[in-house]
Design brief:
Structural class: mainly alpha
Number of helices: 7
Largest sheet: none
Distance between the termini: 78 Å
Number of strands: 0
Strand content: under 5%
Helix content: over 70%
Radius of gyration: 22 Å
């Protein structure tokens, strides 16, 4: 009887220790993802707000490359890091790499379905590659994630404008 209790207690202790170790590893990965995302933002800001306004396109591109690498490291550490997806999408959009921006913004809408801004950015990216019907579909999907009459009115207005372009 004592041996059975000892085995049970040991098993419970091992389960708890395993859970704690897993949680610690996940927290460490999340921290690394945040660090990479933060570094990526610093590189992005250097390129977008400092180098581009000075006409230093080549320097800006180098910083954008560094930013992209950091955002990708953040996503490797934590594939559900919505900030890294959003930042990578923004970087792709600024670089006019709209197919990549579409993929990244789509992931933001999956991870944060109530983030209407992500739907707007995704729709805008679709319009940049003249995929107007898909842009309308994205805005229709956005409407299912809000009850705000003002937002719904704006989404309907955007849909009308896109349909006028078709």
């Amino acid at each position: 009887m004592i041996n059975q209790r000892l085995v049970t207690i040991t098993a419970v202790f091992c389960l708890i220790a395993s859970f704690i170790a897993g949680a610690a590893a996940q927290h460490e990965q999340s921290g690394r993802a945040s660090d990479h995302n933060r570094q990526g933002l610093q590189y992005f800001n250097e390129a977008f707000y400092k180098q581009l306004p000075k006409g230093k396109q080549q320097e800006a591109e180098q910083y954008f490359d560094l930013a992209a690498a950091e955002f990708k490291k953040a996503l490797a550490a934590n594939p559900k890091n919505v900030d890294a997806h959003r930042n990578l999408a923004r970087l792709y959009y600024v670089r006019k790499d709209f197919p990549q921006a579409i993929d990244a913004y789509r992931m933001v809408t999956i991870l944060e379905p109530r983030n209407i801004d992500a739907y707007l950015q995704l729709a805008l990216s679709y319009t940049r590659v003249e995929r107007f019907e898909e842009a309308v579909g994205v805005l229709e999907a956005a409407k299912t994630n809000t009850d705000d009459p003002e937002v719904l009115g704006k989404l309907n207005g955007y849909i009308r404008k896109i349909r006028e372009r078709e």
